[in-house]
Amino acid sequence: MARAAAAGIVAAMSAALLACWLQPSQVIERSFSFRKSHSLKDMENIFQLVRNVIPPLTPKKHKGQDGRIGIIGGCQEYTGAPYFAAISALKVGADLSHVFCTKDAATVIKSYSPELIVHPVLDSPDAVQEVEKWLPRLHAVVIGPGLGRDDTLLENAKGIVEKAKAKGIPIVIDADGLWLITQHPALIQGYQRAILTPNLMEFSRLYETVVRDPVDGNDHRGCVLRLSRAFGNLTIVQKGERDLLSDGQKVLECGHEGSSRRCGGQGDLLAGSLGVFAHWAVLAGPEKTNGQNPFLVAAFAACSLTRQCNSQAFQKYGRSMTTTDMIAQVGAAFNRLFET
Questions:
Q1: What tens digit of pLDDT does each residue of 153-162 get?
Q2: Is 58 helix (H, G, I), strand (E, B) or coil?
Q3: Do 71 and 97 touch, CB atoms closer than 8 A?
Q4: Strands across the sheet containing 32-34
Q5: What are phi and psi of 174, to 5 degrees?
Q6: Can you list the alpha helix ranges (DSSP code H) found in the chain?
Q7: Residues 272, 142: contact at Cβ < 8 Å?
Q8: Average pLDDT, the chain
Q9: Is the pLDDT of residue 9 over 90?
Q10: In this structure, are strands 251-254 and 96-101 parallel, antiparallel, or unpaired?
């Protein structure tokens, strides 16, 4: 029995060492796969596109060039989610991160970090106008983390979506932002600068509302593709055991090794980082993305980074891992995936 236990420990250590020393091509092969007729070379190319859109660090830049991200969410009950999204955006590489939240949530969120710019306006009578003043300064907005389902807040979020659309700003919609879209799918219909990030339950509600059929449990990829097309080829990121990404033209699968720990807040990390990657991919232009949909490239990057953070944090903390531990891994995970 002792010999068997020792063998198990050796096997586990070997697996961990192997994971640490995987070459970039091996990381790609184990993490991402296309369906239909796409080859491993296609996968390698997409992974390289992520590297292409990451802006180089140079002393010639000024504050704000690498990203000014706005998080729309945060209320009395939910202060952690907007913080996780906003701080993740900074950790990934945005220069400035704004949180537009309710008055009750503002002081709490400020107490988490002095690095965030917090606006206590989301429940004010002129919330839409207050946020609209800042939209020209923002490169992307993330709508939903900690938003809640209060009718007033949802109505204000609806108005902010309309204003952001009018200015052509990339919009990531997550959490209760997806509840809003389920109630008002026309709000985002055809706006191809939007990225929706539903989990399985949120996806099911969206699918039944927009496609008007139940989700086919035997055809997950087909369902993601159909939902994207039904929305007018928006980018959809269905989070799950394997993340499925589609822009209505193709489906990518991100099965990068994470862990079985499902602590709350991981989706907020993904949403915040996705806002940054979306800005970078659009800014880089079609030459750097090789004509691929920049929002699909951005989604690919955010999913892989979130899973890598999950894996690294779990290796360190095991069952006690929380999203705060994952955020502490963003820098090392980013470097391992995209800069080595």
A1: 999 999 999 9
A2: coil
A3: yes
A4: 32-34, 251-254, 243-246, 235-238, 194-196, 171-173, 140-143, 68-72, 96-101, 117-120
A5: -140, 170
A6: 2-20, 24-31, 40-53, 80-92, 103-112, 127-132, 151-166, 176-183, 200-210, 220-230, 266-284, 286-289, 294-317, 323-327, 330-338
A7: yes
A8: 89
A9: no
A10: unpaired
> Can you tell me the mean pLDDT for 253-278?
92
Q: pTM of this prediction? A: 0.88
- Residue 229 pLDDT: 98
Backbone angles phi, psi at 51, to 5 degrees: -60, -35
The Cα-based distances of 74 to 71, 176, 187, 226 in angstroms read 9, 11, 21, 32
Task: Report the SS3 class of residue 36.
Answer: coil
CA distance 67 to 42: 28
Tokens of 339: 């800069």
List Cβ<8 Å contacts ≥24 apart for 48-51. Answer: 49/288, 49/289, 49/290, 49/292, 49/297, 50/277, 50/297, 50/300, 50/301, 50/304, 50/338, 51/338, 51/339
Dmax (CA) of the chain:
70
